[in-house]
Design goal:
Elements: E1 13-18, H1 20-26, H2 29-39, E2 43-48, H3 51-56, E3 64-66, H4 78-85, E4 92-96, H5 101-111, E5 115-119, H6 122-131, E6 137-141, H7 144-153, E7 182-187, H8 196-204, E8 213-218, H9 224-233, E9 240-243, H10 248-252, E10 258-261, H11 271-277, E11 281-285, E12 300-302, H12 307-318, H13 322-338, H14 341-354
Parallel strand pairs: 1-2, 1-4, 2-3, 4-5, 5-6, 7-8, 7-10, 8-9, 10-11, 11-12
Helix pairs in contact: 2-14, 4-5, 6-7, 8-12
Length: about 350
């Protein structure tokens, strides 16, 4: 840790700002990260506009501050709210994504508080590129590809990369799939970029008497009604369940066989990584950017938009092909080695301590 006057009074008080979108995509990671940061001598407080996240933290050593909103008109009173709730400003602020960035940045600049901005998607990269570098602000990339873009936008050659972290599940089911229903999970935002029509078409290409597939689509979004119309149009409604809400993917993963990612993840989500940790087969389009999508090690790629290829992979998995079963085991080991929540907390704690204005 650098011996500077700027962090001589470092007390480990860090405010993590997590909006609804971030909680929808990363779920209980924030709960686990809070515990792990405590072990590293950090005292986190989470500021959120998501009542579900606030409820998830009840009974934990992580205090939570619930506000009306981190975007839109409720955010107009955010800075005044922050001054009232934190008469003594935190030592560091860690913003997940860029919600209320202008307000948070103004507040931290006034208090001379270092601000870490965790970049998790292309839209956030674009925001950072437009506004440029501000003193005391530190970009943190969720994956290496984002770090490369950040280096260009902020004129830094080595932006730090801190990936997601997991509590590795201790007990999983490794039963082979042959001879039973294949449970498939899709989790995300149902919009025009989701790639969901590919999954629907792939299931439609598999006759019911050949293979029993049950798909859970977990998420919300503007295209949800159109998705259901497409499902009915292909006469596969009895093989799909559309589950509204954003957090049930976390609970559903242990009970499925396959997690399908039907388009380039943007922004990134925890669901596929958690599926890998549980030893589930992850089938993903070949345009992924995050380094945890390792073809033939943590997942199997198929060409983006190719429903025939996806249907073929589901059949191969149903048949119990040994290489697919081996990928499940390799993925679980890879995630355990590279993405424990303790490693994420340790890396963040180091960044917090070294951050200066």
């Amino acid at each position: 840790m650098p011996d500077t006057d700027d962090n001589a009074d470092w007390a480990g008080r860090v405010l993590l700002v997590v909006d609804r979108s971030a909680f929808a995509r990363f779920g209980r990671m924030f709960r686990h990260l809070g515990f792990a940061l405590h072990e590293e001598g950090v005292h986190p407080v989470i500021l959120t506009d998501d009542p579900d996240l606030a409820e998830d933290l009840v009974g934990t050593p992580v205090p939570v501050e619930l506000v009306a909103g981190l975007s839109g008109w409720p955010a107009l009173w955010l800075e005044r709210n922050l001054r009232r709730r934190f008469p003594r400003p935190p030592d560091r602020v860690h913003l997940w994504g860029t919600p209320a960035l202008r307000t948070i940045s103004h507040w931290t600049q006034r208090n001379r508080t270092p601000l870490l901005i965790h970049i998790t998607g292309d839209a956030e990269l674009a925001t950072i590129a437009r506004r440029g570098h501000r003193p005391g602000e530190i970009p943190v990339a969720l994956c290496g590809a984002f770090a490369e873009h950040l280096g260009s936008a902020w004129n830094r050659s080595d932006p730090p990369v801190v990936g997601p972290g997991l509590l590795h599940p201790e007990r999983i089911s490794e039963d082979p799939p042959r001879g039973r229903t294949i449970g498939v999970l899709w989790a995300g935002n149902c919009d025009q970029h989701s790639g969901l029509p590919v999954l629907i078409e792939a299931v439609g290409r598999i006759p019911v008497d050949e293979m029993d597939v049950q798909v859970a689509v977990v998420g919300d979004g503007p295209e949800l009604d159109d998705v259901w119309k497409r499902i009915r149009g292909l006469h596969v409604a009895d093989r799909f369940s559309l589950i509204g809400g954003t957090q049930l993917w976390d609970q559903a993963i242990p009970g499925v066989d396959v997690c399908v990612v039907t388009a380039r993840q943007n922004p990134l989500r925890l669901a596929p990584l958690l599926a890998m940790a549980h030893g589930k087969l992850v089938l993903a389009t070949d345009d992924q950017v995050a380094e945890w999508f390792v073809p033939e090690t943590t997942c199997v790629f198929f060409p983006a938009g190719d429903a025939t290829a996806l249907a073929s992979l589901l059949r191969r998995y149903r048949d119990g092909q040994p290489n697919l079963l081996a990928i499940r085991r390799a993925a679980r080991q890879h995630v355990a080695e590279h993405y424990p929540v303790t490693a994420s907390a340790r890396a963040l704690a180091e960044l917090y301590r070294e951050a200066v204005v």
